[in-house]
Hints:
Helix content of chain A: 10-25%
Helix content of chain B: over 70%
CATH superfamily of chain B: MetI-like
Radius of gyration of chain B: 22 Å
Number of domains of chain A: 2
CATH topology of the largest domain in chain A: Rossmann fold
CATH class of chain B: Mainly Alpha
CATH architecture of chain B: Orthogonal Bundle
Order of helices and strands of chain A: EEEHEEEHHHEHEHEEHHEEEEEEEEEEE
Strand content of chain A: 25-35%
Strand content of chain B: under 5%
Largest sheet of chain A: 6 strands, mixed
Oligomer: heterodimer
Distance between the termini of chain B: 22 Å
Amino acid sequence: MTTSDPMIEFRDVHKYYGDYHALRGITATIRPGEFFSLLGPSGCGKTTLLRTIAGFEDISSGAVLVDGRDMAGVPANKRPTNMVFQSYAIFPHLSVEENVGFGLRRDPRSKEEKARAVGEALEMVGLKGYGKRAAHALSGGQRQRVALARALILKPKVLLLDEPLSALDKKMREQMQVELIRLQRQVGITFILVTHDQEEALVMSDRIAVMFEGEIAQLADPETLYRRPNSRKVADFIGTMNFLPAKVLEEGAGAVEIEAAGFGRIHVEASQVMGGATAEGATVGFRPETLTILYDSSAATDRESMATIEEVVYFGDMTYYDVRIDGTETPVRISMRNVFGRPVLDRGARARVGWSPGALVLFR
Amino acid sequence: MKSPVFKGYAIAYLVFLYAPIVLLPIFAFNDSKVIAFPLQGFTTAWFGEMWQDTTLWNAVRNSVIISVSVAVLSTVLGLFAARSSTRFRFPAKAGIMGLIMLPLVLPEMIVAMSMLVVLLAVGIELSILTIIMGHVLICTPFAVAILSSAFQSLDQSLEEAAYDLGETPISTFWLIILPLVMPGIISSLLICFTISLDEFIIAYFLGGNETVLSVYIYGQFRFPAKVPAIMALGTILVLLSITLLATAEYFRRRGIAKSGGKDTGGFL
Lengths: 364, 268
């Protein structure tokens, strides 16, 4: 196998529940050793798609391939995948080591070798010495680790994670995010994570598929998703994005001249032009951190506008300003790092706002 | 509940309910053939008399055979019904489950009468077997109720996890589902056993020449001399019933605690 061969391949996968069209033609590939996320709001089909890999959902048409092999007719217990469930699904009547060793029941290895494998798996997830404990007496984070050890001990080709961190509190979740990344690098297994938390997906993934209503809206690495969302919907779902109306003036080869409210005439590259505009027509989108309040008294350039500060939200390390750029209707959000010595502006103040054409995205 | 009227009512109710039962052990140990106060002194002679009654032993044997069979059959049927009602969706599910549970509120007399008519018409001889049939009918709803609660508190992803880790549906059932619903099964067995043991109408209607414990006791009341021995028997039965029901409830609660669910019902 060369590295270019996909680990998972979806070929025009459709899934119907009665009349409900849950998956609408999913075509995508996931590379070996990749940390891949399926991201989307609840009901978008991300969990269903994950379960088609595990073998818990039949597909209505299309094909799901794991490591080049069509999974049609292969039951869940014969697939080279293992899953970490949202509820962890720790067997409550078994001890921690019995849980972790559960998948080795049919393994021909000797008892001692299996016990060693269980010990190694527990050590890998930081639960060394917990083997004899009763599973139902564990905390949420510990259950999570047992579930991971139990799935990884079988050395699957793909580890499927169904919202594994959603039941944990914020601090524990952030800690487990880092541990999952570390674990994935250590074992080198393809991880597929289902999550509705865009931040989690950005932090953890090599690539992310954003799903809406049974379709993949965009599949890209986190940076591309954040900087070049291919539709307003994706832009809205991932982080915060400001939108202002725009008009296309002139279309050249590889570039477009637009007139954007508040910014005036801008020249944008073809790579910045996306589809997915709404009914109101073309829009420019930009992230809060791509605008800057200009504090210095440098001479005015053609890449700045005057604005009125309408709201100030102070966060300690950051300050968020809602500003209305002259000539526009809706306020936009700017985030500024609170560098020492830089004053926090007051509501109602006038400010010069600098922007960069390269950070804009045009939806048309 | 602050008013003394309510308090008095509650006490009167409980006295009315339990005082007659308390009388059983009192007269079982009373040294007199007459069931009346004042008490005449302590004796265990009635237990001895009871012990020697061969018709009683025959009735006990019949009752045990019936109750054990009923407990096992009802629980097995309840297992199927509870599993399908909690795990699968099928057409007319609510209606089917309702019909299964109906004997819970159907007068036993109706069950007994209609079965008697059918059995006589078909020409099946009345025996222990016909009593078992009648009892299974009324005990199965209890088994379904208890086992549904056990299955409901079972996280469905446990099954999927076992399946995902390489087990077949059958081995998953033995390794995961059965151990986790086992407390419910034990509880169902005990409750069905108790219900069947106590039951009178069906046993009387469908028993033919075979006498079970409840019917035997009723018959003995015609002979005043036998009454103290019946009191002794009753005392034993009360103890047995309390033990069985308490054990059943213990297992039901333990089952829910074990699978991490919330207690949402039960009989005690």
